[in-house]
Design brief:
CATH architecture of the largest domain: 3-Layer(aba) Sandwich
Distance between the termini: 24 Å
Radius of gyration: 23 Å
Low-confidence stretches: 29-41, 63-70, 169-175, 203-215, 240-246, 438-442
Largest sheet: 6 strands, mixed
Helix content: 25-40%
Oligomer: single chain
CATH class of the largest domain: Alpha Beta
Strand content: 15-25%
CATH topology of the largest domain: Rossmann fold
Order of helices and strands: EHEEHEHEEHEHEEHEHEHEHHEEEEHE
Shape: globular
Length: about 450
């Protein structure tokens, strides 16, 4: 099961960044009284009991940015909401309900019909403010939870409520349906590829750019297995987005990446890799998504380029995707489509593998013995134990004496060594360094 994603949203200055820092037990998001300090999405992995969640801090909804980046901020918020498993809507108990709170509630209400929403009344920094919590019932978004990011009051109860809503089916088998998002810029052949996979015309194919506007789920069976392939709108540069329909098409594409088990990233082999291709590759890489690069329209190269040379070219142009294998297809003639689906299944199976705690700790012991953690400011890093907390992509939690004692270079060494030892080559993995005392226990 993949890590659940929680989007922290609300108007400016309600304490979203402080709440993220409080949950994470370290200063991750910038905290400042100036509205609009947080612009991009800032995330942290937060363990609570036997659950690890990814919390995403967002910019203030409705902020007027002094650098004219309001549209950018709003776009990042939309991305966070589209990819979230739960919304944490934060309000300020000291201010009471403001008109902007009501506007945010209206915006979130439609999304809350699809995924859970929790209303958090923050800044309950002393008992005298507890009575103000009940005012927020008026928003019609359920019972508000009082919390103080600064004092820690109510934090454990709020984390417990979040974990129960996003991880309600402990012990239940994972849905066997594999979800594949087919992404790429416009006119690289995504819809043709999806129809070839399904072996029937399930989505419209047209030479007109932008025919696909929504993220369309196509369910079909192949080789005795059931798949859901998500056909998406073509990604384009931000300057090329002309209206709200195109804007939300891009949002839904990025949401499809978030909910996919495997991303099939289509490129037009007859054209050079573009800036939009590279940006999409960065998005997939930053999301740590299992990915298969598909060089489509290979017939148009007329055999002038060797497959090995083209693979090297992709590595050079998109170094962040170096882990992703490459398949060469001609979707129009269904050439190598079976190879692509076979490779996607293979990657999914490997990414779904869970290492036992005993095996993982034996591997970690060998890794640490081969290259012990260096000392930083006179203090050596120490790993007490490790465990795998999620699959697809694999996520490992290392509980240590002091996360800051481990340099970026050493963390990279650990990740690469784990990937090699546990047969996760071609699979992105995440390694979480957590201070042992930072786990929240009853």
């Amino acid at each position: 099961m993949s890590l659940p994603v929680i989007a922290i949203v609300g108007r400016p200055n309600v304490g979203k960044s402080s709440l993220l820092n409080s949950f994470a037990g370290e200063r991750i998001s910038i905290v400042d009284s100036t509205p609009g300090v947080t612009r991009d999405r800032v995330s942290a992995l937060v363990p609570f009991q036997d659950v690890v969640m990814e919390l995403v801090d967002t910019g203030g909804i409705g902020v007027v940015d002094q650098d004219d980046l309001s549209d950018h901020i709003d776009r990042q918020i939309a991305f966070a909401l589209e990819g979230a498993n739960l919304i944490l809507f934060v309000v300020d108990v000291r201010d009471g309900i403001t008109p902007l709170d009501r506007a945010v509630a209206t915006r979130l209400r439609e999304r809350s019909e699809e995924i859970p929403l929790i209303l958090a009344a923050n800044k309950v920094d002393h008992p005298g403010l507890e009575t103000g919590i009940h005012e927020f019932h008026q928003l019609g978004l359920g019972t508000p939870h009082g919390v103080s990011a600064n004092e820690g009051w109510g934090r454990k109860d709020l984390l417990r409520e979040i974990s129960e809503k996003v991880w309600p089916t402990k012990g239940v088998e994972i849905d066997p349906v594999m979800r594949i998002a087919v992404v790429g810029r416009r006119n690289v052949g995504k819809s043709t590829f999806v129809n070839a996979l399904a072996e029937e015309e399930r989505v419209i194919v047209s030479e007109v750019p932008g025919t696909t506007r929504d993220a369309v789920d196509v369910r079909f069976q192949k080789d005795g297995r059931e798949f859901v392939v998500i056909d998406t709108a073509g990604i384009q540069r931000r300057k090329g987005i002309k209206n709200s329909i195109e804007f939300y098409s891009q949002v839904r594409t990025l949401g499809a990446i978030q909910r996919a088990d495997v991303v099939i990233f289509l490129l037009d082999a007859s054209e050079e890799v573009t800036r939009a291709d590279k940006k999409l590759g960065e998005t997939i890489s930053h999301a740590h998504k299992v990915c298969l690069l598909v060089a489509n329209k290979w017939d148009l190269t007329n055999g002038e380029v060797a497959t090995e040379a083209y693979a090297d070219y992709l590595t050079d142009r998109m170094p962040g995707m170096i882990y992703a294998p490459v398949v060469f297809t001609t979707a129009r003639d269904t050439r190598n489509i079976q190879t692509a689906i076979d490779m996607a299944q293979h990657l999914y199976k490997r990414a779904s593998k869970r290492a036992g705690t005993g095996e993982l700790n034996r591997v970690m012991e060998a890794i640490l013995k081969h290259r012990p953690p260096p000392s930083k400011k006179g203090k050596a890093g120490k790993v007490y134990y490790s465990t795998q907390v999620a699959v697809c992509p694999p996520v490992f939690a290392l509980f240590v004496n002091q996360p800051k004692a481990f340099s970026k270079d050493y963390k990279r060494y650990i990740a690469n060594a784990l990937r090699e030892a546990l047969d996760f080559e071609e699979i992105p993995i995440r390694v979480l360094f957590r201070k042992r005392e930072s786990l929240y226990h009853d």
